[in-house]
Each structure stands twice: as structure tokens, then as C-alpha cells.
């Protein structure tokens, strides 16, 4: 028999950041703000709304401060942002983000391509970011990218993931999001990764961040659920990919993940109908047809 808390799943919708950062055409500020507000209205309590990275690297996120300023700030909702360095952190603090995230990688080549430094250099750079954020009372999430494969190096060893995850936790991250950036994961490789991670890190500090490039994201999330994970990142309407991982299609669609979880008796606190509305709204703004399974089912 499962306890009530065991049935509760935390969903972090990363669509406004991980999704929109990958859009080649400029997305109007108003559409970003509406998306974040609609997600909050749908009951999403954790929304990655912005990214304070270099606008030369990711121009789409250049208006992150304005997004944070214009959103409605629903009570009880955590609005977070990516912060690769102190410059980004100061901007995120000025924009009153509730949480920030540093992002490392389990593969050297991806680290170089994504944040222009080695894994160890990135960890050194994150240390002062964590110190300053925690001083300011802002919790920090840590991402590890390429946990189930790298676009440049191929397979990634669980030990490489664990090393970076451990260092991020030791620095003070409260949660580690394990990113299958290129969607290479399968339920079997997900289990192998989590077996290694769970030997040293409790499940409550790990999040599954699956991409659906090869259609395995829901299966991977179910494997992770079976192993005790209760935190998942997903992207409304399956928006996204990664600008530094060619061919990476979007994160698992929030609609599909939430539907699956609810159908299995898990609770997310999210109103699926309103989540679908949020997805339709942003797809309309982007001029795009639905990509989530649920978005294709006639109403
Ligand atoms: P760099 O060029 O090595 O940095 O980039 P720098 O310190 O030499 O600075 C260069 C210029 O950038 C300077 O401007 C800085 O002011 C500016 P200039 O003097 O030349 O005019 N700059 C900034 N501007 C605004 N905000 C900042 C900032 N920092 C420097 N925070 C850097 C290093 C990390 C900044 C760069 O590589 C970068 O911004 N990378 C971000 C890449 C990115 O956002 N990738 C996508 C997110 S990761 C992801 O999607 C994966 C994940 O979702 C997990 C998964 O899906 O699996 C997390
Ligand atoms: Mg992602």
C-alpha cells in the first residue's frame, strides 16, 4: 500500500525556459508572460520562467527580466530561472526569482559547447553563485545535462553523472535534475543510472528531466517513478530541445506526463484541462500544430 505523500508528484514546468529558449524566431514578450500566467492558473506550482544567461549565446531569453516583472506572481508558485554565473545570479535576484538553477554536464564536450568551460571549471564557477544565492535566502537547483548520452561523446557513465550531482549537492543545491538532454535514455538505462545515484542520493533530491526525442520519455519517467522519484521536469506542449545539442527534440510534454500520472493514481495538483489551454495558447502564438499526444486528441 502506498502512502498519500508517495502518490504526490512535483512537476516543474520548464517550457517557458527550456522550451522557448530553443525557438529560432523571436517569441513576443506578451506571449511568454501569458504562458507563465496560464501555467500558474492551471495549478503548476514550479515554473522555470526565465534564464539569465548571455544574450549572445541565447538571444531568446534576453527579455527574462521583463518576463519576471510582468508575470502575475500567483501565491504559492515558485518562479525560477537559470543562472550560469554571478552576473546571471545578480540579475535573477534583482528580478525577484524564487529559486535559481545552475547547470552543469556529465560530459566534457557538452560542458564546453554549452557554457564554454570544463566540468571542473563550471563547478568552481557555481560555488560563489551558490554562496551568494543561499546568503540571499534563494534556494538553488542543480542540473546535470547529458545524463543518458551526449551528442558529442555518446554513452555517459552513471559514475560521471553521480560525481557532478554529488559536487552540486555538497555546494548546497537542494535538488538535482537529471537531464536526458538528447533523449537517448531507455527504461533500462534510466534504471541503471538511478541505481547508481540512489546509492548515494535520496530520491527526494532527484528529479527526472526526460526528452522525448525517440519516444521513450514517458516510459523513462515510469521507470524512475518505480524507483521512487517523485519530481519530474516537463515542458508544456512539449516545447523545446537544446540549442547546444543538435537534434534534441523537446522535453516530455507536461500534458502527456500529467495525464499518465493522473491515470496511474498519482496527484500533481494540476488541472489538465487548463494545462491543455496553456499549451494551445503558446502553440497558437508560435503558429505551430500540437505535438503532445493529448493535444492531438479531439476535445
Ligand atoms: P562566456 O562567453 O565564456 O562568458 O560565456 P564571459 O564571462 O567571457 O562573458 C562574455 C560576455 O557575455 C560578456 O559580455 C558578459 O557580460 C556576457 P561582453 O563584455 O562581451 O559584452 N555575460 C552575460 N550576460 C548576461 N547574463 C549573464 C552573462 N554572463 C556573461 N549571465 C556563459 C559563458 C556561461 C555566460 C555562456 O556560455 C552562456 O550564457 N551559456 C548559456 C547557454 C545556455 O543557456 N544553454 C541552454 C541552457 S542548458 C540546457 O538547456 C540543458 C538543461 O535544460 C538540461 C537538459 O535539458 O537536459 C538545463
Ligand atoms: Mg531539457
What does this structure look like?
The protein is α/β, with parallel strands linked by helices and 299 residues long. Helix content is 41%, strand content 14%. It has 12 helices and 8 strands. It has helices at residues 15-19, 29-41, 64-70, 86-94, 108-115, 119-135, 158-171, 187-198, 217-226, 254-263, 272-286, 293-296; strands at 10-13, 46-51, 78-82, 99-105, 140-145, 175-180, 206-210, 231-234. The protein has an 8-stranded parallel barrel, surrounded by 8 helices. Helix 2 packs antiparallel against helix 11, helix 8 packs parallel to helix 9 (217-226) and helix 10 runs antiparallel to helix 11 (272-286). 3-hydroxy-3-methylglutaryl-coenzyme A binds at residues 18, 21, 51-58, 82, 84-85, 87-88, 103, 114-116, 143, 145, 179, 181, 209, 242-244. Magnesium ion (MG) binds at residues 18, 179, 209, 211, 240, 251.
Structural class: alpha/beta
Report the biggest beta sheet as strand number plus sense, adding barrel if it closes. Answer: 8 strands, parallel, barrel
The helix/strand order is EHHEHEHEHHEHEHEHEHHH
Bound molecules: 3-hydroxy-3-methylglutaryl-coenzyme A, magnesium ion
Mean pLDDT: 94
End-to-end Cα distance: 35 Å
Strand line-up of the largest beta sheet: 1-2-3-4-5-6-7-8
How many strands appear in the DSSP assignment? 8
State Rg.
17 Å
Query: What fraction of the residues are assigned to beta strands by DSSP?
Result: 5-15%
What is the general shape?
A: globular
- The helix count comes to 12
Poorly predicted segments: none
The helix content, as a percent range, equals 40-55%
Amino acid at each position: 500500500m502506498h502512502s498519500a505523500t508517495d502518490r504526490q508528484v512535483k512537476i516543474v514546468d520548464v517550457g517557458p525556459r527550456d522550451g522557448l529558449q530553443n525557438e529560432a524566431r523571436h517569441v513576443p514578450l506578451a506571449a511568454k508572460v501569458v504562458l507563465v500566467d496560464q501555467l500558474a492558473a492551471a495549478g503548476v506550482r514550479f515554473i522555470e520562467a526565465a534564464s539569465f544567461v548571455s544574450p549572445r549565446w541565447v538571444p531568446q531569453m534576453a527579455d527574462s527580466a521583463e518576463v519576471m516583472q510582468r508575470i502575475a506572481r500567483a501565491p504559492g508558485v515558485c518562479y525560477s530561472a537559470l543562472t550560469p554565473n554571478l552576473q546571471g545570479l545578480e540579475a535573477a535576484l534583482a528580478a525577484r526569482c524564487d529559486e535559481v538553477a545552475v547547470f552543469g554536464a556529465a560530459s566534457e564536450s557538452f560542458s564546453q559547447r554549452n557554457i564554454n568551460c570544463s566540468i571542473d571549471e563550471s563547478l568552481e564557477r557555481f560555488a560563489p553563485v551558490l554562496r551568494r544565492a543561499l546568503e540571499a535566502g534563494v534556494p538553488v537547483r542543480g542540473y546535470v545535462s547529458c545524463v543518458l548520452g551526449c551528442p558529442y561523446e555518446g554513452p555517459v557513465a552513471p559514475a560521471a553523472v553521480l560525481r557532478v550531482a554529488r559536487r552540486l549537492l555538497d555546494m548546497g543545491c537542494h535538488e538535482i535534475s537529471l537531464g536526458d538532454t538528447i533523449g537517448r535514455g531507455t527504461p533500462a538505462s534510466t534504471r541503471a543510472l538511478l541505481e547508481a545515484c540512489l546509492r548515494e542520493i535520496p530520491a527526494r533530491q532527484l528529479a527526472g528531466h526526460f526528452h522525448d526525442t525517440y519516444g521513450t520519455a514517458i516510459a523513462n519517467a515510469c521507470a524512475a517513478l518505480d524507483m521512487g522519484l517523485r519530481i519530474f521536469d516537463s515542458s508544456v506542449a512539449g516545447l523545446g530541445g537544446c540549442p547546444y545539442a543538435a537534434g534534441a527534440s523537446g522535453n516530455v510534454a507536461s500534458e502527456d506526463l500529467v495525464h499518465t500520472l493522473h491515470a496511474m493514481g498519482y496527484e500533481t495538483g494540476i488541472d489538465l484541462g487548463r494545462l491543455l489551454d496553456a499549451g494551445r495558447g503558446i502553440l497558437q502564438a508560435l503558429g505551430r500544430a500540437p505535438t503532445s499526444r493529448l493535444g492531438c486528441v479531439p476535445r
